[in-house]
Known about the structure:
17% strand; membrane; N_methyl_site; alpha+beta; four-stranded antiparallel sheet; transmembrane helix
Amino acid sequence: MNRKQNGFSLVEVxxxxxxxxxxxxxxxxxxxxxxxxxxxxxxxxxxxYFAIDIINRxxxxxxxxxxxxxxxxxxxxxxxxxxxxxxxxGGGSGGIVCTNIETRSWDLYNWEQxxxxxxxxxxxxxxxxxDTPTACIQVSGAGDVLVAIxxxxxxxxxxxxxxxxxxxxxxxxxNKRRRAYSINTVII
Length: 188
């Protein structure tokens, strides 16, 4: 008796299902790794934006350049007056809307809030900034400015400031999830 076998046996179907599931798990893991990498890249871009933002604010308020130096981790209190730039309205000292010092205070407060995500909220929770950022500004010489921003990354890799100079190393808390971005410029 010769019988012809048509179709697949149950064992063949199970083996092919196992191979398919293993492949799908691999694709799913690849997707997770890509999402994490994309988020890390986004955080780096945000840090770059925040560093350039404070440098531009400092350029607009050169007379207070030394006053911008310090470490900022989100604990500045809101100034009594909000100022985007120091304006003189109507000429003379009687028409001053914001002094340079008030503008500096507003710049630093507003900058800290942006880094902490206050510009983007969901259900009163800040979600748009960096994860536990710390920013350090060093002003020296004739307008030499170093801005360093550190934040917490998604996974442990290495300390992002480990091979940097002492000023950048001292910015933020040292750990294997710390990421660092710094920019050195001159404001004249």
